[in-house]
Amino acid sequence: MKDGWGRDINYIRISVTDRCNLRCIYCMPLEGVEKKEHDDILRHEDILKIVKCCAKLGINKIRLTGGEPLIVKDIDRLIYEISKVEGIYDIGITTNGILLKDMAGDLKKCGLKRVNISLDTLDEEKFKKITRRGQLKNVLDAIEECLRIGLSPVKINTVLIRGINDNEIEDIMNLTRKYPLDVRFIELMPIGEGEKYYKDGFISSEEIIKNHKSLIPLGRKKGETAENYKLSDAIGKIGFISPLSCKFCDSCNRIRLTSTGTIKPCLHSEKEYSIREYLNSEDMLLMAIKNSILNKPKEHYLEENEKSFSKKMMFQIGG
């Protein structure tokens, strides 16, 4: 369906948990998150009810996020059940990759089509510094396994922070010479823990592109957030996601569902719509989701009005 500004909304990002097995410095506090009661988090059957209603409204693309979705019990079963929903043809997941290698094959069999893997450094010691736990090798092995079994596309999400990993830009770009990956550089956002690094650490996509003359522009596909480029001899692509320096609100095609049962029509807006109370009535649930889509803001004002955007952290919203 179309939102109030005429945009086709066909994509929902579903956060299945706000917990994570890493503590990335720009995302989650060192002490982790306050553990919620079991009843505070949407059950798989609740998520399926919401997905079925979304499909009736024309949403056909699903991405499961977190926190870290692979720590959720029976995540493979949830993917399988979503894959059977009429109208849903594309199921993806965003993960830190720590647990992915051993799960990738089963997830694909259950209906997973694509995967986004967070990777902010290729240096083992720096990986430990950024994530505050975990092993880089687990992530690199997961990437190779996903490519081996034919998940496509396999996208790498890299958040650049000046003074921390900006000296690795070329090394990360060069992954596209060896692997058929979509490497995407994402601008650091002043949300949650990211605020601590934003003032001194923000690097715009424009700056990176300007300093790398060898990048060949490919443009942006409809509905995509990334402006795409490639290296002349590469088998993969390089994308830049620029929500601050070059926002893409006019083509935004998505809404978000938090793990506690609220719809966020815009990542950066404080406005949320609770739909938990409608889970026992399909008609009411359908209307509540439809209402949230119709009230999707025209654009975010993150770059000019900090009072208007969400005060939640990314792991509470869904990455």
TrEMBL record:
Task: Spell out the PANTHER family in the cross-references.
Answer: MOLYBDENUM COFACTOR BIOSYNTHESIS PROTEIN 1, MOLYBDOPTERIN COFACTOR SYNTHESIS PROTEIN A
Q: Which GO terms describe its biological process?
A: Mo-molybdopterin cofactor biosynthetic process
How does it associate, per the subunit comment?
Answer: Monomer and homodimer.
UniProt key word Iron-sulfur: yes
- Pathway the protein contributes to: Cofactor biosynthesis; molybdopterin biosynthesis
**Residues of the Radical SAM core domain:** 4-225
Q: Which residues make up the binding site for [4Fe-4S] cluster 1?
A: 20, 24, 27
CC cofactor note: Binds 2 [4Fe-4S] clusters. Binds 1 [4Fe-4S] cluster coordinated with 3 cysteines and an exchangeable S-adenosyl-L-methionine and 1 [4Fe-4S] cluster coordinated with 3 cysteines and the GTP-derived substrate.
According to the UniProt entry, its GO molecular function terms are:
4 iron, 4 sulfur cluster binding; cyclic pyranopterin monophosphate synthase activity; GTP 3',8'-cyclase activity; GTP binding; metal ion binding; S-adenosyl-L-methionine binding
Q: Which residues bind [4Fe-4S] cluster 2?
A: 249, 252, 266
Spell out the family assignment given in the record's similarity comment: Belongs to the radical SAM superfamily. MoaA family.
Mind telling me which PROSITE patterns this protein's record contains? MOAA_NIFB_PQQE, RADICAL_SAM
What NCBIfam families would the database entry show?
moaA, PRK00164.2-1
Task: State the reactions this protein catalyses.
Answer: GTP + AH2 + S-adenosyl-L-methionine = (8S)-3',8-cyclo-7,8-dihydroguanosine 5'-triphosphate + 5'-deoxyadenosine + L-methionine + A + H(+)
HAMAP family named in the record? MoaA_B
What cofactor does this protein call for?
[4Fe-4S] cluster
The record's keywords, sorted A to Z, are: 4Fe-4S, GTP-binding, Iron, Iron-sulfur, Lyase, Metal-binding, Molybdenum cofactor biosynthesis, Nucleotide-binding, S-adenosyl-L-methionine
The name under which this protein is listed is GTP 3',8-cyclase
Summarize where S-adenosyl-L-methionine binds, as residue positions. 26, 67, 118, 189
The EC number(s) this enzyme carries: 4.1.99.22
Class of enzymatic activity (EC top level): lyase
Q: What does this protein do?
A: Catalyzes the cyclization of GTP to (8S)-3',8-cyclo-7,8-dihydroguanosine 5'-triphosphate.
